[in-house]
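Morning run. Coffee first, then this:
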Amino acid sequence: SLYQAVMGQPLYDPDSFDSPFAHLMAIMQEPVPNLPSERCSQAMAEFIRACLTKDPLQRPNCLQLLVNFFQ
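And here it is:
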């Protein structure tokens, strides 16, 4: 993922959880951490945050991402 490419580690490292269920629960419930400004541009951080929006009704679709971030 882009998050992993920027940070050098997975967003939620599966090895740090007791079970696959705990890993899935963290993905669903834990807040997405902010990316440090020294690791990527503000535009890249905003793009990654938009992609990682947990609520599917609030998450932009592919066309919205394309229009908002790549034009």
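The chain has a mean pLDDT of 91. Good start to the day.
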